[in-house]
Amino acid sequence: MASHRYLERHGNSDELVVALHGFAGSSERLAAVRETIADILPDADVFTPVLPFAQNWLCSQKAESIVAGLMREVDQIVAERATSAPGYERISFVGHSFGAVLARRLVITAFGEQHDPSHDRPAPFEPELAEFREARSWAGLIKRIVLLAGMNRGWTVSSAMDWKTTVEWSVLQFLGETIPFRRPTVFAIRRGAPFLAQTRLQWLALMRPDYGPRPDLITVQLLGSGDDQVSPDDNVDYSVDLFGAAGSKSYFYVEVPFSTHPSVVQMAKEGPEETQPSGISGAASLP
Q1: Are 257 and 279 in contact (CB under 8 A)?
Q2: Is 163 helix (H, G, I), strand (E, B) or coil?
Q3: Dist CA 48 CA 14 (whole Å)
Q4: How far apart are alpha carbons 175 and 182 in whole angstroms?
Q5: What gap in Å lies between CA 84 and CA 29, rounded to an integer?
Q6: How far is 105 from 11, CA to CA, in rounded Å?
Q7: Strands 44-47 and 90-96
Q8: Spatial separation of the C-alpha atoms in residues 244 and 249, rounded to whole Å
Q9: CB 186: neighbour CB atoms within 10 A?
Q10: What does the alpha-carbon distance between residue 4 and residue 80 come to, in Å, rounded to a whole number?
């Protein structure tokens, strides 16, 4: 079996967890997340790739191309594990901030482009994702998406931000608008961006029950009570997230006390002194 960079194998390797870091961060920012996954899922392999925008505010690779590259890597990891029967039994995706948007898009892409004879689901894949229009063979193994402070509706410079964050995003916005011939990757998740809009349309096409059976997967959204970049409404898509009876609920929203946008990933048993116990340890037992 080939060795994959950023892939940690554990126990019986019966589950794969793909964990994606946020903008201008790195996979090391998810060290506490990896530790928590290993504690809760000791038999899960954990794939935490370093994304092209890691530590690079002016990365200009298209978000769609990043998704395509990640899909190819997951395809290969799953295929190689399948050579050692019985292969993975479950797959989960975890993402923080920008990584949460990419995690959701990976799940969407895994299930293929949604269409029907009446064309009631107009949510085509972009050209960069054309090779994934057919569902992956492993799509049915996806059981959970965990989104940590997911920027589902995008970023915007707001007076609600602290002054340091406001300055950083303002400078980034200025540079992105003035540098010729390149658009920073982070503009893919600026509020109103086509990538975000298309992601929502594709999610609706996949998850709305009146379009057909929904995938059997759980979405868990965690948001810090002190997050000044993402609001609770940004984390709930009322068109699809609240469908289903209580006994078959597929969406959970969890507020994390004492946490901010960057610190929501500090969830290990021992963390920085400035973090405090959240009191939501029961969230680990969600379906």
Answers
A1: yes
A2: helix
A3: 17
A4: 10
A5: 31
A6: 28
A7: unpaired
A8: 5
A9: 25
A10: 10
pLDDT class for 277, splitting at 50, 70, 90? low
- 3-state DSSP: the chain helix, strand, coil percent, rounded to 5? 40, 15, 50
- As a whole number, mean pLDDT of residues 143-160 equals 81
Q: pLDDT digits over 56-111, tens only?
A: 777 889 999 999 999 999 999 999 998 877 899 999 999 999 999 999 999 999 99
Q: What is the pLDDT of residues 21-33, one digit of tens each?
A: 998 777 888 999 9
Residue predicted with more confidence, 3 or 46? 46
Domains of the chain: 7-154+183-285 (3.40.50.1820)
**Residue 117 burial (CB < 10 Å; 0-12/13-18/19+)?**
exposed
Do 72 and 136 contact (CB within 8 A), yes or no?
Answer: no
| CA count, 13 A, side-chain hemisphere, 103 | 33
CA distances from 248 to 158, 236, 279 (A): 37, 17, 25
CA angle 3, 217, 255 (to 5 degrees): 95
**What are the helix (H) ranges across the chain?**
31-40, 63-82, 98-110, 163-178, 194-207
Tell me which of 263 and 237 has the higher pLDDT.
263
